[in-house]
Amino acid sequence: MITRSRSTAAVLASLLALTGCTSTSDSAGTGSSPATPASTGPVTVTSCQRTITLDGSPQRIFAVFHPAIELAHALGAGDRLVGTAFLDNQILPEYAAAQATVPYNDDYPSKERLYSLTPDFVLSAFNDAFTPDVLGSQDDLAAQNINSYVFGEWCPAAEAGEGNPLQLKEATFETTYTDITQVGTLLGAPDRAADIVARMKAVVDDTRTRVRGADTSVTVAVGTLRDDGTISVQGGSGITQEIIEIAGGTNAYADIATRQASVSVEDFVRRNPNVIVLAPCCGKDMTVADGQKEIDKYTAAPALADVTAVRDKRFVVVPFPGLFSGIRNADTAAQIAKALHPDRF
């Protein structure tokens, strides 16, 4: 599992080529200028089996987790943010100035702090925000006249109950497009949402065209080497699966039904990935150089010395939020594709 440690921090630089290592920052959204909310009257969307009806566009938004924060800015709602929490890396440069004026928490605010900001809408990229001991369930917030929306990648499974953060959920780029479109509708910015989706689709189409006919047998492991000797990897049910497919690769752990899993070094050696994707996390000031620390851990591990990716130093450092449903997904797929098939770019 890619874990969230709040003790480290990031700057996502523009495309940076290291020896055997690729890293980049995404420029995924539209400009940061505020959008005048469309005056469309009541709007209704359905998300995670919840029907959300708003009489007008939210004016006081609290955004939780990096993909939600960037989406709010991309939709031109940065001037309506009353608070934010949990940036994974440095925010995209085009939103940095606007984000600097918004109250920020490294962790969840208390319920009392949240209520003191008088939000009328909470936008979260992960469903563990909506648990009784965190911000409260979505029903709890509704009782306080606070509407809410959680990204579809993290809709709780029916058997898991509201708020379970690691249930099984298939997620694809269509999941992301739906979220962008629906949040755009709720925030009164449908045209901006359509522009973001159109740009992402264009990047995906271009990437697929470039890698068409390439050797897709190259295996990719998205994983973090832990201090306890296990490796956290991305399985086959999250959006990372489709990112790797678009990039023209094969997920070495596609057969694992869960989004994330912890595997042994022995299993990692047996699967012998050709490329390792790293996504350093978490903190609003993390630098791409933090990815080098993870590379060093792999190359210093004797047990991994014969893994093809380690031996050949084929590491790709991507922005952490690019691996979870949000506006960076298309650019992340393109970055990985360029690393897997450089002759196609």
From TrEMBL:
Region (Disordered): 23-43
SUPFAM superfamilies recorded: Helical backbone' metal receptor
UniProt keyword Signal present: yes
Protein origin, superkingdom: Bacteria
Segments forming domain Fe/B12 periplasmic-binding: 60-344
TM segment ranges: none
Leader sequence segment: 1-28
Keywords: Signal
InterPro entries tied to this protein: ABC_Transporter_SBP (IPR050902), ABC_transptr_periplasmic_BD (IPR002491)
Compositionally skewed regions (Low complexity) per UniProt: 23-36
Cited Gene3D superfamilies: Nitrogenase molybdenum iron protein domain
Family of the protein in this entry: Belongs to the bacterial solute-binding protein 8 family.
Name the record gives this protein: Fe/B12 periplasmic-binding domain-containing protein
Provenance organism: Micromonospora tulbaghiae
